[in-house]
Design brief:
The complex is a heterodimer of chains A (217) and B (271). Chain A is α/β, with parallel strands linked by helices. Chain A contains seven helices and eleven strands. In chain A, strand 10 and strand 11 form a beta hairpin. The radius of gyration of chain A is 17 Å and the shape is globular. Chain B has 271 residues and is an all-alpha fold. Classes of the chains: A alpha/beta (217), B mainly alpha (271).
């Protein structure tokens, strides 16, 4: 569970958040908002990587007081996996298994589950966008976190890969607490249980059926 | 500690594949071999060790800061630019794990690169039947220590730079400053301000490249006359304790640089 209370954050004079609150349980919450409204900053605050006022609790743990425990409970999936293109997948997964204190069997199990097992010797640079994103998901799921943060995970993908990633996400409904930031309103509407729009430093919750291009007006 | 080692290992792998490290290492190895082979020129055979070590010292004074500054400078700035800084920090590690992992990985990569170059030069020296192996080991050890100092300074540049290009540019500028411009600046200052020798020596000590040079020469040779007035002055003041003083001075330099870089990095909120 994620509990955000009176979140305040600013960069110099530029206010990003002016006191919004939010609670997320085992559901998929779509985060929408124009560029620069603070979607990625929200994730940084949740991961304890950015200073803020107010409070954020993840599974009843204060983000500021328990940064390492929090990171073990959270899986972060960025828009594009930015790691070592010349490394083979097997080396990547070994590294992250050690970093997350899980056995390599867990990594191989997830590779099997996400159809990456036949690409263990492939270098990250040679993965397609969809496979790269699946690798990102595998890394995020290594310690079986209850919370997943997805920062525009489909932004660089074609329609086929997007569909695959969205169907993976659908399987988390009701099982994991997911925050999913995206610019693609249609995707957010299809996949989310509810939607939060970041607007002028506040959270607004429109009805799912209202979310379309007209909603931006 | 385990997490620092993990990050170090990855940073090391990244560094040894870095084209800067590869190119400069090859350049260093070639130069080191060339000078050890034709250094004495008249006989066109391997030179005597003293002459070779002096030449190697001059090459090390150029290559270690160049590689150390650029490698250290790229370490965090490169990750910040590519997005891997945020990604790695989203894993169960803290900023200290990441920072020291990057630092040790870069030091290790550069140490291996310089050790390989020196090993090739040592091969040339060994073929002449020289018995000055001990001196060569001293040169190698001081070089390793100097690598730590240079990477530490590079880390400051890295945390201050917003992208890899700026980091490399600043590193090259710092290299020029420490290896070329500082000498010229010191000479100009001494001339204009009519500085006394102790003041000149004092200012020299703020340049780690000069400190490395004096330390190595002092350890390899009891005669500091090659360093001119400054060297002689230091020898008179510190006597046999001079190498120890210079060693601790370089330690101090490195600790201050690393502390400062880490302090800035911990304060930073942008990834």
């Amino acid at each position: 569970m994620i509990k955000i209370n009176n979140l305040e954050k600013k960069f110099g004079d530029h206010i990003i958040f002016q006191g919004p609150s939010l609670e997320v349980h085992n559901e998929i919450v779509g985060i929408v908002g124009a560029n620069g409204t603070g979607k990625t900053t929200l994730f940084k605050c949740l991961l304890g990587l950015s200073d803020f006022s107010g409070s954020i609790f993840i599974d009843h743990l204060d983000v500021r007081k328990n940064p390492l425990e929090i990171k073990n409970k959270v899986g972060y999936i960025p828009q594009y996996l930015p790691i070592w293109p010349d490394l083979e997948l097997i080396d990547v997964i070994k590294f992250f298994c050690k970093l997350r204190d899980v056995g390599i069997e867990r990594g191989l199990f997830l590779f099997e589950q996400f159809n990456l097992i036949n690409h263990l010797k492939k270098k990250v640079a040679f993965l397609s966008g969809g496979m790269r994103q699946k690798l990102s998901i595998v890394i995020a799921l290594l310690s079986d976190p209850a919370i997943l943060l997805l920062d525009e995970p489909t932004a660089n993908l074609d329609a086929w890969a997007t569909k695959e990633i969205l169907s993976i996400m659908k399987s988390w409904r009701g099982e994991k607490c997911v925050l999913f930031a995206s610019h693609r309103l249609e995707e957010v509407r299809i996949i989310s249980n509810r939607i939060v729009q970041i607007d002028d430093g506040r959270f607004i919750e429109p009805r799912l059926e209202d979310v379309s291009l007209e909603f931006l007006d | 500690m385990k997490k620092i080692l993990l990050i170090s290992k990855m940073s090391f792998r990244e560094s040894i594949r870095n084209k800067w490290v590869i190119n400069f290492s090859i350049g260093f190895a070639l130069l080191a071999f060339l000078f050890s082979y034709v250094g004495s020129s008249e006989t066109a055979t391997f030179s005597s060790f003293d002459r070779t070590s002096a030449t190697l010292l001059n090459i090390l004074m150029l290559f270690i800061p160049l590689l150390g500054f650029t490698l250290g400078a790229q370490s965090i700035a490169g990750d910040r630019e590519g997005g891997s800084l945020l990604y790695l920090l989203s894993q169960p590690i803290n900023k200290n794990h990441y920072f020291f992992g990057k630092f040790f990985g870069s030091v290790l990569a550069l140490s291996i690169s310089i050790t390989s170059g020196l090993a090739i030069a040592a091969l040339g020296v060994a073929l002449t039947g020289s018995d000055k192996v001990f001196s060569f080991i001293i040169l190698w050890l001081t070089a390793l220590f100097f690598i730590v100092v240079c990477v530490s300074i590079g880390m400051i540049l890295s945390v201050l730079a917003t992208n890899r290009g700026r980091a490399i540019g600043t590193a090259i500028f710092a290299w020029l400053g420490f290896t070329v411009l500082s000498d010229l600046g010191l000479m100009a200052m001494a001339q204009v301000l009519r500085l006394r020798s102790e003041a000149i020596v004092g200012l020299t000590l703020f340049n780690p490249v000069e400190v490395f040079k004096i330390l190595t020469i002092r350890v390899l040779s009891s005669n500091l006359e090659v360093l001119g007035m400054g060297g002689l002055y230091l020898d008179i003041v510190f006597g046999s304790l001079l190498p120890l003083f210079l060693f601790f001075w370089l330690c101090f330099f490195s600790v201050i640089a690393i502390y400062f870089a880490r302090w800035i990095f911990l304060l930073q909120d942008e990834y």
